[in-house]
Amino acid sequence: MSDKLNKDQIKELLPHREPMLLIDELINIKKLHSATAIVNVKKDSFFVQGHFPGEPVMPGVLIVEAFGQAAAALTAEGIDKSTYENKLVFLMTIEKARFRNPVVPNCKLELNIEAIRSHGRVWKYKGAAFVEGKKMADAQWAATIVDRK
User: Fold this and answer.
1) 39 in the Ramachandran plot: left (φ > 0), alpha (ψ -120 to 50) or beta?
2) How confident is the model over 50-57, as a mean pLDDT?
3) Catalytic residue at 51?
């Protein structure tokens, strides 16, 4: 276990692939507790052309998706590999999501996430998203580990 995962290592943990693999890096990992995900929001990101032409912003639902991916990677990295083999992490609930400032292309979005608790296969998390120290969004959510079909 390391305190940092690159995109290739994240791909080993998550089923997501381009263009839906949103997180580029996971850093400051504290096993099953917390981490920071890095999302490099680029001018050629898939959503830029249509959301919104002339004034692109990263959709809030994609920020929530990135929170979920970061939490799934944190959990998958921390639990016993035999426990996670042939499993997926599915988002169950989203609570208290707030979008405070628009996230625009050509920025580094930092998602600070924390596992609040786990009960069996259900995990609860909270997180806050920042660009250059400015809070952009925050949320709480739950996810479950399920068997792959």
Assistant:
1) beta
2) 92
3) yes
* pTM of the predicted protein model: 0.95
| Mean pLDDT across 55-79 | 95
Residue of 16, 33, 51, 119 with catalytic role: 51
d(CA 71, CA 89): 9
The rounded distance, in Å, linking the Cα atoms of 37 and 129 is: 9
Residue-number span of the structural domain to which 85 is assigned = 4-147
Where residue 73 sits, what CATH number does that domain have?
A: 3.10.129.10
The amino acid at residue 24 is D
What is residue 89's predicted lDDT score, i.e. its pLDDT? 87
Domain total for the chain? 1
Residue 63 in tokens:
């920020």
